[in-house]
Batch of 2 targets.
Target 1
Amino acid sequence: MRFGTIDGRLVLVRDGLALDVARHGPFSSDPLDVLANFAAFVTWARETDYAGAVPAEKLGPPVPNPRQVFAVALNYRPHAAEAGFQPPDEPLVFTKFPSCITGPDTEVTLPPGKPDWEIEVVAVIGRGGYRIARDRAWDAIAGLTVGQDLSERVVQSRGAPAQFSLGKSFPGFGPIGPVAVTPDELPDRDDLAFECRLDGEVVQHGRTGQMIFPIDDLVARISAICPLLPGDLIFTGTPAGVGNRRTPPRYLRPGETLVSTVDGIGEIRQRFVQAALGD
Ligand code: ZN
């Protein structure tokens, strides 16, 4: 099952069609309400027909207003190595402040500095919970979606010790979508292929099976400390190939387009523009 939003309202998506959940079922239009009651929603979604569906156009983020957004640094060995670090013993968790979350097809104003790309698979929490055992972790997840952990490296690395969250939270720096896909519908929820292309050139590719801390492990470890709430997002880390570790380094420039694809989910597309004078 695939779900997303149009104008902030939850929709089911199938074969290019979108069905407004609140207009056709006994649910709220608010993704956070429905994700809290996800099992009932899945049961209804399996039975419903798509009479009254409209073309799935102008999809927004599957969760426009998550309460918590977790992100994980250095979760792939080659990326840890290119960044000059040993693979961590514990997940390195930071946040992307929720105001940076946007939809799948966007224009992003580049801030000054060194703006960079990081394709990531993003877990969307359904029922959630506190102290979730790893072998029950997938039950807490509603679906997976495609994301970019866009990062401005000057702000990200400013200070000693550096702190990540602000440099990763400029407006538009957390695009996700186009839909979230329930794990049962994915080819292999633990091993999805993905890639991102900058103006057509493949700059990153990998598989989620290469994670140091797989998705179920992240859910267990994060929920051991923070209760996971319906609609929370976990950006699960990026593989090698980011711009600031290239020789020479390469950063996002106005006019470029970044397309990020995860097999079985879809693609998101960001076009970058220069800040207008006075922005
Ligand atoms: Zn990242």
Target 2
Amino acid sequence: MNTSYQLFIDGVWREGSDGKRVPVINPATEEAFAEVSWGTVDDANLAVESSQKALSGQWGTWSPTRRGRFLLSVAAAIRRNTAELSALFSKEHGKPPHQASSEVEDAARYLEYFGGWANKLTGMTIDLGQGQLDYVLREPLGVTVHIAPWNYPLDIFCRSVGPALAAGNTCVVKPSREISVVTLALARLFQEEGIPAGVLNVIPGPGTVLGKVLTEDPRVRGIIFTGSVATGRTVLQSAALNITPVVSMELGGKAPSLVFVKDESELDGPVGGAVGAMAWNAGQSCGQRARWYVRRDLYEPFLERLAPRVRNLKPGPATQPGVDLGPLVSKKHYDNVMNYIRLGIEEGARLIAGGGRPEGVGEKGYFVAPTVFADCHNGMRIVREEIFGPVITVIPVDSIDEAVALANDNSFGLSSEIWTSDLTTAHLVASKLDVGHVTINGSAAFGFEVPFGGVKLSGLGREGGPEAILAYTRLKNVWVKLGHG
Ligand code: NDP
């Protein structure tokens, strides 16, 4: 396997301008398994310059159909390379193989979905009366900058680079400092499939430096950001300098799940959902169902069923068979999540499962036991703040109105979920939840064909679905006086 990764700028693999390289750590072993070149301000400038040049080069001559076919060919290449990409991904991120390969598949699906859109974008004509022709052109934005997080790096890369390229833009991608080499491996597939130089640049490096210079560059005409609220605010301030359009900003969540099934016989679904909220990506998901509001008569039965299933989850390295969840992505994040677990105990929540480092994983690796806190209330920080780990909170409620009020009582508004077999309750609650995304009796449909994004501190814009690709275009109105009168 390759153990040395470089920046991808202007169609060329190269070292950073100051030659700096940093180790890439496997979070399951805490050992370095590769090194990656670290970009500088000069590299960021070169990437933007090459992206701007590429707009009027060969890329500008590609028809929308050709761009679409290209994205489909990269999707096929991703599928052909699933095993290699997933293995690298597991090593860099810690995800168990089934979760790593599922995200590789998601990456391919985003490119297929947006590849299909490339030749379906249209402008329009507007009737202003006799002697006049008015038409509206739909054009690409130009150079777009994509600042990506570490939790779903392949998925998030393709959900923004896919529509950007489909619409004819060029891209500069700044991956997270925690996860960059799997992104570079993905970029290599774009290169092998024949992307013209400069259309896609990927530069790992320090976010505070590269992120700032990229988002403040007046040549950049679109910013796509996923990450924390604090950095999101900084990015918005940078964008304000040149009034750069922010295509989308996805800033996380603290999703509520409302359990209002008929009786105990229907608890399997929600209990399985709660287990999944801790196991999938070790809870490092913006859409994680982190707050569980359970009708009071179902509350203890829910906890009784949940506890043994959570204790049965197997944390461990991706190399071990049968692992349900991997380590957290970094030492910094591990310490952060462990602090929240300590805080939960201090705040007086009842610990139902987990509560620290799991048994049987040894001394190394950023493993956290799936943790359930019961008897919580909305005043607790563990209920209000995004923990972003395998930790959930459970709260009893007396009515659906109370559950909705508590669910909405949070500064985030990304995802939410309701479990009920009563159709009226389901649709009524869906209409009342102050979020961008509701699921009923399960948690699929997070992207591709459907819009995904939040309200309040969860951000702005939508990823996935037709609106997402329109956001990567701008409108130009053209008016013509017909005749010479
Ligand atoms: P950040 O918001 O710090 O990082 C997200 C991206 O922004 C990274 O690529 C980062 O680069 C970059 N960045 C950092 N500073 C700037 C800047 N000044 N201008 C532009 N870009 C910048 O998130 P963290 O990775 O530190 O995670 C912290 C918390 O954020 C998590 O614990 C979680 O709560 C939340 N989060 C939410 C995500 C979501 O899906 N909505 C995803 C990831 C995190 P670099 O990595 O090099 O610093």
